[in-house]
Amino acid sequence: MKTSLLLGVLLLWTLLQAHAQEFKVSGKVTAAKDGSSLPGVNIRIKNTNRGTITDGDGVYELMARSSRDTLVFSFIGFQPREVVIGQQTTVNIPLDAETTELDEVVITGFQEVDRKLFTGSTATVKMANIKSTGMNDASRMLEGQVAGVTVDNVSGTFGTSPKIRIRGNTSINGDTQPLWVVDGVILEDLNNVAADDIITGNANTLTASSIAGINPDDIESFQVLKDASATALYGTRAKNGVIVITTKKGKSGQTRVSYSGNFSMNLRPTYKQFDILNSGDEMSVYREMYDKGLIDITTSVKAQNFGALGKMFNEINAKNINWGPGGEGSLNEDYLHQYETANTDWFDVLFRDFSLQQQHSLSLTTGTDKHSSYYSLSYLHDNGQTIADNVKRYSGTAKNTFVFSPKLMVDLKLTGNYREQKVPGTQNRDFDPISGRFRRDFDINPLSYALNTSRSIRPYTSDGTLEYFRRNYAPFNILEELRLNFINISVADISTQADITYHILDNLTFRSTLMGRHATTKREHVIHERSNQAEAYRADGTQYIADANQLLYKDPDDPSGLPMVVLPEGGFNNVTEDELRNFYVRNSLDWSHTINEIHHINVLTGQEIKYTNRTSLRTDGIGVVYDNGGIVNLDPKMIEFLSRQGIRTYALAVDRERFAGLFVNGAYSYKGKYIFNGTVRYDGSNRLGKAKSSRYLPTWNVSGAWNVTEEDFVNIPWLNSLKVRATYGLSANLGPNTSALLNLQSGVTLRPSDVETYLYIDALENRDLTWEKLKEFNVGFDYAVLNNRVSGTVDFFKRNSYDLIGLIQTSGVGGNPYKYGNYADMQSHGIEFTINTQNLRIGNFSWATGFNVGYTQDKITRLNFNPRLGDAIVQGGAAVQGGPRRGLYSTRFAGLDQRGIPTFYDGSGEIVYNYDLQDRENIWNILHYDGPGEPRGAGGLTNIISYKGFTLNALLSFKFDYKIRLDDAYSPRYTDFNSLSRNFVNRWVVSGDELITDVPSILDQRVLAVENPDYQSAYDLYNKSTVRVADGGYVRLKTVRLSYTIPGQWIRRIGANTASISVEGQNLALLYSDKKLNGQDPEFFSSGGVALPQPRLFTTAINIGF
């Protein structure tokens, strides 16, 4: 017994000693390539049974016995690594990929394909690697991340889609945006907005993007499909490329709850970014206008708009103040001094500095081997860049996966989002074919106002009350107008989806996807009775104003009668409601077979049907008296007045799209070395001509790949992998206005004697209208060298777009001289290059770099209908045969004449003041081609530096080879309401200045009234001339983010498993841009309406996992 007791004591002492020597080791495992966390990594102590795995954030901990113990890290797809613990208690490990991305899975939306066997051109982007914490629209995060993908952030207002192009342009007038696919189903936009209309700033652009409703925290990855092989399964919808979004799903294992919170503040713009005169310099120019008779008491009393001088003359006319010391006609300098020294900072008045934006996301992940779930809720509140805009968004997702048996699995998904938004009131932008300018009536966009309004105008008087000037013949104060003229937007979007997978045999799988979606949007434009826009309809203070005001009613039965007010009181309540109903079904069979582990065959076949119904209803409430309970006081003549201007107070549009498709895809590989792939689809749409050959179209693709490094004869130590790919195929897309039906509309004639409406042909029938088509050849290389520390891709492609849709001229016999037809062809070619490098890895320190660039040139080879000269010189560029899709064409500036008036060269080299803007035949002879109006090249440079728990990520984005037309700044007539460019300091003043400056003079009123009428046109042409063109290329410091993963022993005190914090800056600086832009953002040019630039944003974020 004593012996047993002694042995027991010895055993207990041994166990206690062993336990006393144990200590805890913890750390985080990341991918060396990009610093992303690696969940599920196996970690064990060498030569023992002790081990663990990393959690969802790559964090681990285990008990070690000795500092001499060796930790072995292993994970599928990554090289194993061994590390001696030594004196460390925290061991953070970056793992190198075992091979390059060739071992990843490509998610096409129809199937998942081993990248080694994939023959198309594609790029995978993980949300964890590109997520920008202060950015609430996931589509914007792709800027600078993928070669060949150009992202133009033409507006920073929430809801507006960025202009995204994959490999340039494939259509002249149609949509050039890629197809968005979420979890295998095409995501329809809430309303159809053409690519060229995204930049307009019209209110409907705010409800165009469905991606804006997706919570970025719900996204797992993006798959960008570029060439005909990668997009082949989408057939007639994939001409512009495809972006596949995969969202997060439940995982088996312990229940996890995650919270992320982002808090952002933006900086307002400043006048240092723009080239605008201060109030003192402006006033000196206004005095010159006064000296030349452009501003005096006569012009001011009847002026549509006036500022400080005009107000002075109206005060003198009203006997409120006296003339200056020089007597009648002289300026009252004492009165003007308060405005000359005002130097109003409109950015400070209208924009918010350090405005708060916050986004909160909460998710729950759980699961077993039979059932897994993912649930998330998010809330976004942005106080807005300006005093006139704000937005709230709520979103939720519920995803459940049920494994009923080894054969049957069902995925169910329910998503929804709701948005409330307020923006300044705006009218749609219109094009004036006479002047070649875009115009927007009643524009109160805060940025446009700050840039275009004189700094001598004040928002408040000296005693602090609102100060009014004149705009649209009525009193105007921007602060009051923004309060009384606004748009309320609401968006509700809900969808449900079921994915059924049934394994009929081990190698034969049936899949079915069913999706239903319902979305509604409402835009309510409130125009209060006391707003300037409403008061303009009542502006008849003098006979001069009544005669000039186009918003007053003139009785067609009494041509000599006086103009009259037909909106005696009240304002407007204009409501547009859009509804989207979308139903989608896809069924497929996937069969695969391997013979002797040498020959692998895969066949995918199926069908899909899509129903899309869109309804748009517009109702205009007229004479709404908001201050009196919203009662309506309507004069019937107001309806007549609007009708004669072509303005409808009620409009209903219904669009029913039906689409069906059949597809089959076959793939064969031999030993994983040689891969051949082919796809055939047959699609039909009711939106095209009645002819069977027009409505239905087969598309196809053939492709192949050779994994060179799988060959026995390739034994190059530094070459880890090399794959060569080639593709040739046909894809297509629906073009613009693809209804081939006869469209009849009612209207009112211009003749005063006609009092009845008439019917006119708005669009002719075209039974032969067919798809826009694209044939594409692509060859590419995927490579990895130097132990996979350098990897990337190179692609070369050539594209031929044909049967492009646009207006063609007819004989006119059918009742309309124009109709939509397949009228043009276009060719393009380009190159894409991507390289990723592991520059350095020493212990806990790593540095990785990614660089990508894409370049595409396009040329219109056939165009049956050239634009007019006036259309060719528009701001954003025009389509002209022999040029790119949007080429920038300018009048050829010949210098100033002896009076400082701009002159130009005509087609024969003669100097003229004006052109025939209706000319269609001599565009290349008369105009100068400046270059493409859209970026041909774009790319990005990313650097990721990690040390222990810290990670620094920086992104530079750039674009090159395109031109920008500067905003219109010169006119034969100026008012004292508008701001002036600093270039006015260099304007022509006296004879001889034409030898040293190209800035035109301010014309004398006598010259404008009496002499050559072409002088006025010369100023419009000057704005469209070669001297008003700048290079659009730039380099931007897009993002800098510093994050820190908090050690586990710190956060476990609050019951958390993982936690990290980060600080980030966005849109920090333009490192390079053309000096002509004077610091203005090249991406945001010539807009207005509801559009605002992307602000400089600073974000603090926290992420916690339990």
Automatic annotation (TrEMBL):
Compartment list: Cell outer membrane
Gene Ontology, cellular component aspect: cell outer membrane
Ranges where the TonB-dependent receptor plug domain occurs: 119-242
Keyword tags: Cell outer membrane, Membrane, Signal, Transmembrane, Transmembrane beta strand, Transport
Lineage: superkingdom: Bacteria
Signal peptide region: 1-20
SUPFAM superfamilies with a match to the protein in the record: Carboxypeptidase regulatory domain-like, Porins
Membrane-topology annotation of the record: Multi-pass membrane protein
Major location category of this protein: membrane
Similarity field: Belongs to the TonB-dependent receptor family.
Protein name, UniProt field: SusC/RagA family TonB-linked outer membrane protein
